[in-house]
Design goal:
Blueprint: H1 9-60, H2 64-144
Helix pairs in contact: 1-2
Amino acid sequence: MAKFVYRMQSILNIKEKMQEQAKMEFAAARMRLDEEEEKLKLLLNRKEAYQEQGRALRQNGLVVLQIMENRDAVGIMDEFIADQRYQVSLAERALEDARLKLQLAMQESKTQERLREKAFEEFLHEENAKEAKEIDELVSYTHGHS
């Protein structure tokens, strides 16, 4: 039996490499989003700590300077949180873009794989037809010389 050679194997290899690259980009985007969400969580926890400290300051006495500093710290944390939420939204968009790119790469790779399978089935059909023809010729030759 002859060896099967897929004439578009290089394209299939490229599509598979593109799919692997898209998987890595998706994983990197997922990691970045996780990091940005963790930063946001830390900022929210820090703001909560400042707010708790502010409540304690107001209960323990009127140290105006410390209360004002605490209020400023909470305000600054609000700005940091707003900036971090924007970073999270950017990371979410990047993740979605990477997901779409991965989905497209997987579709292209599967399409090439199906084309390869179809070509292999056609090759097997042709090989079976050749083999059947050779058997028929052999049988005809054997009957003709008996």
